[in-house]
Amino acid sequence: MLFALGPFNPAVASDPVAYKLMHASSINIDMLEQEEELVQQLKSYLASEKLDGIRAVWTGETLVTRQGNPIFAPPWFVEHLPKDTWLEGELWIERQQFQLLSSIVRDRHPNEKEWQRVKFMVFDSPSIKAPFQDRVLTLKTHIQTINQPYIQLLPQHDIASITELEQLLETIRSQGGEGVMLHRKDNLYHPGRNQNLIKVKPYQDDEAVVIGYVPGKGKYHGLMGAVWVITSDNRKFKIGSGFSDHDRQYPPPIGATVHYRFNGYTASGLPRFARFLRVRNSPDS
């Protein structure tokens, strides 16, 4: 098997839509408890569930993925969406249904019946120039005007203490959910990774796009040794652990989105001890 060795593919993450979106920093709940300043400021944040869906953006004209790829939704799904406001959210069915959702959304010929199971859970708008708590109020008005059951505003919760955050995270996890998003109430919408938007999970994880391979050595001679990946904010690094022998023989293809775990960051800001979890099949894959 031959491997592409180049660590950068300029075709990845090049669509203008990708650079207009805000991306969360990530922290696990144990590490968050050690961030005294953040813990003391939890009242300044709104909390929502981290949905395991497909991120989608309504541009006022079309529904696209976070990389700007078109989402082929039925006309009725988007006909009531506003023409003058961007909406950002997750296409979602319910917890632990990502693979079903992915098969529905990736179909270039939308199945009308299957799409009736999908909801657009709106959580922000890049085009509203106001603090987050005010953007939420404006979005609430938009969603009420749309008045369609499949277009919903993602619930936001006030958090008064680390105990309340832990309880919310445990409730979501016990019901099969992923984690919690913390968004500072006074945060303006700034594209790129933002320390005022924080993903809280029992562990740190993220996604990246495969852009190349490193050949295996020793017992992995002739197989894939590691993959080069690039994140949404253009950070490039290698993932070499977490792969089965089958994964190494048939590695994730160039352009695939992979889900990985990690333990904090290096001094240069790269994920430390990144470990492959799975290929995340989505319209951007």
TrEMBL record:
<dbReference type="InterPro" id="IPR012340">
    <property type="entry name" value="NA-bd_OB-fold"/>
</dbReference>
<dbReference type="GO" id="GO:0006281">
    <property type="term" value="P:DNA repair"/>
</dbReference>
<dbReference type="Pfam" id="PF01068">
    <property type="entry name" value="DNA_ligase_A_M"/>
</dbReference>
<keyword id="KW-0235">DNA replication</keyword>
<dbReference type="GO" id="GO:0006310">
    <property type="term" value="P:DNA recombination"/>
</dbReference>
<dbReference type="InterPro" id="IPR029319">
    <property type="entry name" value="DNA_ligase_OB"/>
</dbReference>
<dbReference type="InterPro" id="IPR050326">
    <property type="entry name" value="NAD_dep_DNA_ligaseB"/>
</dbReference>
<dbReference type="GO" id="GO:0003910">
    <property type="term" value="F:DNA ligase (ATP) activity"/>
</dbReference>
<keyword id="KW-0436">Ligase</keyword>
<dbReference type="GO" id="GO:0006260">
    <property type="term" value="P:DNA replication"/>
</dbReference>
<protein>
    <recommendedName>
        <fullName>ATP-dependent DNA ligase family profile domain-containing protein</fullName>
    </recommendedName>
</protein>
<dbReference type="GO" id="GO:0005524">
    <property type="term" value="F:ATP binding"/>
</dbReference>
<feature type="domain" description="ATP-dependent DNA ligase family profile">
    <location>
        <begin position="128"/>
        <end position="233"/>
    </location>
</feature>
<keyword id="KW-0227">DNA damage</keyword>
<dbReference type="InterPro" id="IPR012310">
    <property type="entry name" value="DNA_ligase_ATP-dep_cent"/>
</dbReference>
<keyword id="KW-0234">DNA repair</keyword>
<dbReference type="Pfam" id="PF14743">
    <property type="entry name" value="DNA_ligase_OB_2"/>
</dbReference>
